Amino acid sequence: MDCVDRRDVGLLLLRLGTGGVLAAHGTQKLFGWFGGGGIEGTGQFMESVGYHPGKASATAAGLAEAGGGMLLALGLMTPAAGAAAAGAMAGAAAVHVPNGFFAQSGGYEHAASLGLTAASLAVTGPGRLSVDALFGHAVNRDWMVPAAFAVTAAATALVIGTRNKRLRRKREGEQEALFDE
Questions:
Q1: How far apart are CA 137 and CA 133, in angstroms?
Q2: CA nearest neighbour of 74 among 137, 12, 142, 8
Q3: Which carries the bigger pLDDT value, residue 171 or residue 101?
Q4: DSSP 82-103
Q5: Residue 8 in contact with residue 127, Cβ under 8 Å?
Q6: CB 123 within 8 A of CB 116
Q7: CB of 136 within 8 A of CB of 128?
Q8: Eight-class DSSP state of 33
Q9: Cβ pair 47, 53 in contact under 8 A
């Protein structure tokens, strides 16, 4: 195996692993598979952490994770798939930031890792062992990378910004006790 072949096999393994984990997370949200809450349960969770409306947020996150994950695993529409998955993971990381970095404390480590890997695959491309390569990279052009990240960054900033604003307003409305009782 020469260096180019090893790179392609490495990208395939990275796509399959990352895409598979993302797809599983997304199907938990969408269908309740693998012990997930489905749209109903995930929607309630989304509401509780500040993403409104909950069902729409659960659907968007589930589609970005399941769809982005499946497309990454296949190596199809890689710029859009990686950017969508990275955006979903940024939204997940925002929920976990107050808990610090490490996952064992409920931190954003896992979401950040998946998001950065998905983003890296979007930038790097899927390699030759992919559906994109099979179709001559028709939906994996260089210009698609910045376009996919621009759209995803704008949508992610809007969603997370709105959530943070909502949480800030809620906190400001709650007054702490002045004295211990």
A1: 5
A2: 12
A3: 101
A4: HHHHHHHHHHHHHHHGGG-S-G
A5: yes
A6: no
A7: no
A8: G
A9: yes
- Length of the chain measured in residues: 181
Q: Among 35, 126, 26, which Cα is nearest to 70's? A: 26
Element (DSSP H or E) covering residue 152: helix 144-173
Structure tokens at 66: 């399941």
Neighbours of 135 (CB within 10 A): 12
Can you tell me the mean pLDDT for 145-155? 97
Q: Is the dihedral of CA 46, 151, 84, 93 positive or negative?
A: negative
In this structure, what are the phi and psi dihedrals at residue 108, rounded to the nearest 5 degrees? Answer: -95, 10
* Residue 160 Cα to chain centre, angstroms: 13
Rounded distance, CA 11 to CA 142, Å? Answer: 18
Give the confidence band of 115 by pLDDT, cuts at 50, 70, 90.
very high
